[in-house]
Amino acid sequence: MAAAAREGGGASAASVAGRAGAGPGRAGPGGRLAPMAAAPEPHEPEKKPFKLLGILDVENIPCARESVLYGSLGSVVAGLGHFLVTSRIRRSCDVGVGGFILVTLGCWCHCRYNFAKQRIQERIAREGIKNKILYESTHLDPERKIKSNSS
Amino acid sequence: MAYPFQLGLQDASSPIMEELMNFHDHTLMIVFLISSLVLYLISLMLTTKLIHTSTMDAQEVETIWTILPAIILILIALPSLRILYMMDEINNPVLTVKTMGHQWYWSYEYTDYEDLCFDSYMIPTNELKPGELRLLEVDNRIILPMELPIRMLISSEDVLHSWAIPSLGLKTDAIPGRLNQATISSNRPGVFYGQCSEICGSNHSFMPIVLEMIPLKFFENWSTSMT
Question: Over the stretch B135-156, which tens digit does the pLDDT of each residue have?
Fold first, then answer.
């Protein structure tokens, strides 16, 4: 049973590469699978993403770029404003850094909250579309239930 | 799956992993802000007049650096606990698969309808076909239907192992004499790789896990052909 399973397991149905570009064979001219000495392995992206302090990927993390930019703006405004009022350089730098942290954190939390709400709405919409397609004209059709409740 | 020199998480293929990635981004932003603050404070230390030689107390700064970390910890803990409870939600799985860890391979049992059991050994490097992945391919993949919740019961026949698939956000210890449960739900079809994640002997690095998620129709054909 185990030996048969081992042989049968090699012919797995509809095997799809989980990552784009990782398929083992590609069709050559005439539609034949070209024999490959070594298929291209999944490789790291050609352009390395820019990471602030080496850790924060501002290009790919949603809301990161906006938060850091707004934080920088807030830092400059707060530091410069404090300096113009008090003419104290060191304290103004402290205010600038504090402003950067607070504004970045505030923008981040606000943006991520909206992002999470949007994701939930997308998920509901996706489920709704799937259910409509699946159950259209059946007794499970949600639109039929709404119409029967209203009539 | 992972690419060479990868530092970050793999792309998410399950709702839980998406939530974990969002939580990771959130925590990373907090870490970045704290690191910026510490970097600034260190730079301040480089220029100091060293005049406060008899400081007795500093009530204000002590209050700040007590309250602020507490707030930061709350900001981190609340999403973390939310995900923790989300991972344990009851979701009516349609299928139950048992996986047993052995030295040094995994065995899988689909016993809901018919008895289907097979072992999954790593394919040695000298037997790989062109294009296959070194130390990751197996002779028998575990094949499951996509977009459906599946219960995995994980245990071990000998020593501790751990059944892990990073792109689905799964890592569960396989403990002899104990049955651990995990729920798999994949958003999309594909092949997902993982490796044993608990030291279990000399070939601990050579017992990978390969999960193939396919549409239900193909899964039914496959399971019929296997029984």
Answer: 999 999 999 999 999 999 999 9
Rg (CA), chain B: 24
Q: How confident is the model at residue B33 (pLDDT cuts 50, 70, 90)?
A: very high
Q: How far is A80 from chain B (nearest CA, A)?
A: 17
Contact criterion met (CB below 8 Å) for A6 and B140: yes
ipTM for the whole predicted complex goes beyond 0.90: no
Residue with more model confidence, B90 or A98: A98
Residue B6 clears pLDDT 60, i.e. is over it: yes
Over the Cα atoms of chain A, what is R_g? 28
Q: Which residue among A13, A41, A53 sits closest to B222, beta carbon to beta carbon?
A: A13
Q: Which residues of A are less than 8 Å from B36 in CB distance?
A: 53, 97, 100-101
Interatomic CA distance for residues B10 and B192, integer angstroms: 10
Distance from CA of B58 to the nearest CA of A (A): 17
Q: For chain B, which residues make up each domain, given as ranges? A: 15-88, 95-226
Q: Which two tokens stand for residue B6?
A: 């990868």
Q: Does domain B95-226 have CATH number 2.60.40.420?
A: yes
Determine, for residues A9 and B140 on separate chains, whether the beta-carbon distance falls below 8 Å.
yes
Q: What is the mean pLDDT of chain B?
A: 92
* Alpha carbons B194 and B2: distance in angstroms, whole number: 9
Q: For position B55, what pLDDT does the model report?
A: 78
Task: Work out the pLDDT band at B184, boundaries 50, 70, 90.
Answer: very high
Q: What is the CATH number of domain B15-88?
A: 1.10.287.90
Q: Give the pair of three-digit tokens for residue B162.
A: 């751990």
CB-CB neighbours of B26 under 10 Å = 19
Q: Burial letters for B92-114: b for 16+ Cβ neighbours within 10 Å, e otherwise?
A: ebebebbbbbbebbbbbebeeee
Put simply, the answer to whether B129 touches A19 (Cβ < 8 Å) is no
CB B93 within 8 A of CB B151: yes
Condensed to tens digits (0 to 9), the pLDDT of residues A96-151 reads 999 999 999 999 999 999 999 999 899 889 888 888 887 777 777 767 666 666 66
B24 Cβ neighbours under 8 A, 6+ residues apart: B9
Within a 10 A sphere around the Cβ of B215, how many other Cβ atoms? 15
Q: Do residues B170 and B163 lie in contact, with contact meaning Cβ atoms separated by under 8 Å?
A: yes
